[in-house]
Design goal:
The protein is α+β, with helices and mostly antiparallel strands and about 625 residues long. It is about 55% helix and about 25% strand. Among the domains are: about 5-115, no CATH class; about 240-385, Up-down Bundle (Four Helix Bundle (Hemerythrin (Met), subunit A)).
């Protein structure tokens, strides 16, 4: 093979291998290796020994060469291992031993993993001091006058200085009318004192006299309940008797009604009819109108009503429901009889063959019958109303008595619960709940203290009053400048505080100061004397200027020096604290991990003040709890 044909052979073979057969098996690799050998042999025969090394296939050859050798060796090793495994599998004892060895190794590994106990770095919840501060950088400048204003609107009640007066830091200069706030603060402080006393009582336990009072309360509640239950029995008994009295009269009233109805039909109108108790009664006079026919037909119906009325009275039921129905039926019977009498009265009035005397007598008889029936009907209706009224009265009296029993049962249960609580003593939950009430009362009192402080202007520094623009009785608005004080100090510090931090800072806050020129170990004390109400925009960011003074002059301090200010905005003593980095947040809640039975368990917490390295824990943890810092 010449050089040209060898190169062509190698290209074609490489192309075919790249389409899917490359590295498919060891035979393919061997063939490719053979192709490279043929190509190299062709270069030797051409007399151009360096052509192979200068060709584009040289580095490909080297790479593939090592690939081919590596893969061929690997394949041969796998083949040998497979053959050995096949031979081993032909012997069952070897298979069992291998499986047993694998299981033993796995068991040893699992036991080792299980015996390893996780170790945690822990932090203990402890009580301590926490200080919240805002750190900013400012500049020293010559001291200037301070313009002062009330933080709320109101009427000026008192002014203690005039222009030219020397004043000391913390001196009261002017006061608004704040009597309402003073009263509210006193009330809030009294509530706080009450809650503190209650907590002390919970911690000290129940006194013997309190226990005796609780026992007496239970006895009294039990007696009251017994009286209420007895009263309920009496009320029900009386209600039954009163109602039965009305029902006992029903039979007599029905009998009387029947007698009156029978008298009206069979006696008072007897002379007006012939064959009156037959199916075809006739009038003894002539009317020549429809009234006569109506009177005759209704006479027959009246007889039937009387018979039915009599039968119902003879079989009168004893139940209250049956008697109610009998009264209603009696009313209906009387209405039919009354309708009959009205028809007869009309017929008498229209009679054409009666003498004046007979007509007058007949009218008298009919009217007498109607009067008696109306009286009976009124008696039944009245008795029916009496029964309904008595039922309503009974229900009201029974409901009132039952309500008293239920109320007294609740009172007895509450008294028994109170006695049980006093006998058991205060629980940790009750003490914790009362502690929370104290915190609430403290916060309420602090709110009134803060509101009261806004009605007073104090001098923030030593100096001289240079301006006073208010008078007693004048109404002033919040943040209106009313008094100016010229500082007696040589220098003051101005700094810009971001809008995120300014709400934490108040007039009079203590400041720890260091100057770059004097080093971090040289510290000075100061206080905030002014907070600008208007914002300052720097590079699109909102800041508020605050001014501080040095508590003491120092000859080394110069105007323009850079000052590092740590403003103490809040401080709490004897509160539960933790390193802030162990408290995590998720979905708006804060939590920590505590160790429970060797396992990390999440616990929701509430936090308060946050310092540089510590954070206050207000709920969720107790003193001495171990919190996981890291594993």
């Amino acid at each position: 093979m010449d050089l040209e044909s060898g190169e062509k052979y190698l290209k074609n073979y490489s192309l075919s291998l790249s389409k899917g057969s490359f590295l498919s098996n060891d035979m393919t690799l061997r063939l490719r290796y053979a192709a490279y050998k043929k190509f190299y042999a062709a270069t030797l025969r051409s007399g151009n020994n360096n052509y192979f090394f200068k060709s584009n296939f040289y580095w490909t050859f080297l790479t593939d060469y090592f690939k081919i050798i590596t893969v061929i060796i690997t394949i041969n090793i796998y083949k040998a291992m497979i053959e050995k495994i096949k031979n081993i599998l032909k012997r069952p004892l070897y298979v069992i031993l291998i499986i047993a060895a694998i299981l033993a190794l796995w068991g040893i590994f699992a036991y080792w993993r299980g015996s390893q106990k996780a170790t945690y770095e822990l932090a203990e919840v402890a009580r301590g001091e926490i200080i919240q501060q805002v750190s900013v950088t400012g500049k020293v400048k010559p001291a200037d006058s301070v313009n002062l204003a009330f933080e709320k609107s109101g009427k000026v009640a008192n002014i203690t200085v005039s222009v030219g007066d020397k004043v000391a830091a913390g001196q009261r200069l002017a006061v608004l009318n704040n009597s309402d706030l003073v009263a509210q603060l006193a009330q809030a402080q009294a509530s706080l004192d009450k809650e503190i006393v209650k907590l002390a009582e919970l911690k000290s336990g129940t006194r013997p006299e309190e226990l005796q009072i609780a026992q007496t309360t239970v006895l009294n509640a039990a007696k009251t309940l017994a009286d209420a239950q007895a009263n309920l029995v009496n009320v029900k008994s009386k209600a039954e008797v009163d109602l039965n009295n009305y029902y006992d009269d029903v039979k007599d009233i029905l009998n009387d009604a029947y007698i009156k109805a029978d008298d009206a039909v069979n006696k008072q109108t007897d002379e007006l009819f012939t064959n009156d108790n037959s199916d075809s009664p006739n009038l003894t006079f002539y009317t020549g109108s429809q009234s006569g026919s109506d009177a005759k037909s209704k006479r027959r119906l009246a007889g039937l009503e009387l018979a039915q009325f009599k039968a119902e009275i003879d079989s009168l039921p004893t139940s209250q429901g049956g008697l109610d129905l009998a009264v209603t039926k009696g009313e209906n019977h009387l209405k039919v009889i009354l309708d009959f009498l009205n028809s007869v009265s009309l017929a008498v009035n229209e009679a054409t063959n009666l003498s004046s005397t007979n007509q007058t007598n007949y009218k008298y008889y009919v009217n007498a019958g109607r009067t008696n029936v109306n009286t009976a009907l009124t008696s039944l209706s009245t008795q029916k109303q009496y029964i309904a009224a008595q039922k309503a009265t009974n229900q009201s009296d029974i409901t009132t008595a039952e309500t008293s029993v239920n109320t007294d049962k609740s009172s007895l249960a509450a008294a028994q619960d109170e006695l049980s609580l006093k006998q058991a003593g205060s629980t940790a939950e009750a003490i914790a709940g009362q502690s929370a009430q104290i915190k609430y009362a403290q916060a309420n009192a602090q709110n009134y203290e803060a509101a009261l402080a806004k009605t007073v202007i104090f001098s923030p520094l030593n100096g001289v009053v240079t301006k006073k623009d208010i008078e007693v009785g004048e109404i002033v608005t919040a943040n209106a400048l009313v008094i100016s004080v010229l500082s007696a100090a040589k220098f003051e510090i101005e700094a810009n505080v971001s809008e995120n931090e300014i709400a934490k800072i108040n007039l009079g806050d203590l400041v720890s100061l260091t100057l770059d020129a004097l080093g971090p170990t040289e510290k000075f004390a100061g206080k905030i004397i002014a907070i600008d109400p208007a914002e300052t925009v720097v590079s699109g960011v909102i800041y508020y200027k605050v001014t501080s003074v040095f508590d003491a002059d120092d000859a080394r301090i110069k105007s323009g020096m850079t000052v590092n200010m740590d403003i103490q905005t809040d401080k709490k003593d004897n509160v539960l604290i933790l390193p802030y980095y162990v408290v995590k947040s998720r979905d708006g809640e804060k939590y920590v991990q505590v160790l429970a039975d060797g396992q990390a368990v999440e616990r929701i917490v509430k936090t308060g003040l946050e310092g540089e390295t510590m954070i206050e824990i207000t709920d969720g943890l107790s003193e001495g709890d171990q919190v996981i810092v890291a594993k």
